């Protein structure tokens, strides 16, 4: 595998409640998965969570999106976002390795002798720090997040600091949902925006209204596709210049 070409695309949905307007987020997550975009979910829960419906949707969205889900208290959000990102990268690389092994020797990692398996797992762990990653965070900013949004802001900034330590490039976008007025979402930070502006934009986020998870997810998919197209065009231009 060539880490210069490999790009792992993931969406992380962070929410404390169930979608209640704008369509079915599970169906949208399924479409994302078909386009090789992994959808992970993080449910922010109180210590005493009485209503199980939001928790069920969080699980269903992740399963439809080929991703993983976790529940966390708001104070542990940063560590949880870091955890699902690590799991996504490692699982994606491991799946690719298993596919290649199956084609070459007719077995996967689980079938291999412990020594050989250990060496490959070490390679996967090392390579996971080098692969390019596109990460779009969908942050629930509905009314129920009012007392949690400050901690959520700090968690995103902490995650960005973690990304800086990776060998591989991380392109990050942030979408808040709902948006302003009657808008379902608002783009806070695009993939090619200056990262230095992220902190000030985070503090412009206001909590309000409903939880339109499906429209925000659909927009995130389109945003990632547009960014990929732009990246492909830039690579093509570089190749043309190199050829002369």
TrEMBL record:
Q: Where is the VWFA domain?
A: 1-89, 134-239
Which Pfam family, any one of them, does this sequence belong to? VWA
Q: What is this protein called?
A: Ca-activated chloride channel family protein
Taxonomic lineage: Bacteria, Bacillati, Bacillota, Clostridia, Peptostreptococcales
């Amino acid at each position: 595998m060539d880490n210069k070409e490999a790009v792992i695309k993931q969406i992380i949905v962070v929410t404390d409640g169930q979608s209640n307007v704008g369509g079915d987020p599970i169906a949208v997550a399924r479409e994302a998965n078909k386009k090789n975009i992994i959808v992970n979910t993080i449910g922010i829960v109180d210590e005493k969570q009485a209503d199980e419906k939001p928790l069920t949707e969080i699980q269903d969205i992740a399963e439809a999106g080929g991703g993983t889900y976790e529940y966390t208290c708001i104070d542990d959000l940063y560590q949880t976002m870091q955890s699902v990102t690590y799991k996504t990268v490692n699982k994606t690389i491991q799946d690719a390795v298993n596919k290649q092994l199956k084609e070459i020797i007719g077995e996967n990692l689980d079938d291999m002798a412990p020594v050989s398996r250990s060496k490959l797992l070490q390679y996967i762990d090392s390579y996971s720090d080098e692969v390019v990653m596109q990460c779009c965070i969908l942050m629930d900013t509905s009314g129920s997040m009012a007392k949690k949004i400050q901690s959520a802001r700090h968690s995103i900034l902490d995650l960005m600091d973690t990304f800086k330590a990776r060998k591989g490039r991380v392109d990050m976008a942030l979408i808040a949902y709902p948006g302003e007025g009657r808008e379902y979402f608002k783009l806070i930070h695009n993939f090619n925006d200056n990262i230095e502006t992220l902190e000030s934009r985070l503090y412009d986020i206001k909590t309000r209204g409903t939880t339109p998870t499906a429209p925000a997810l659909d927009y995130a998919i389109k945003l990632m596709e547009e960014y990929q197209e732009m990246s492909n065009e830039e690579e093509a231009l570089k190749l043309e210049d190199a050829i002369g």
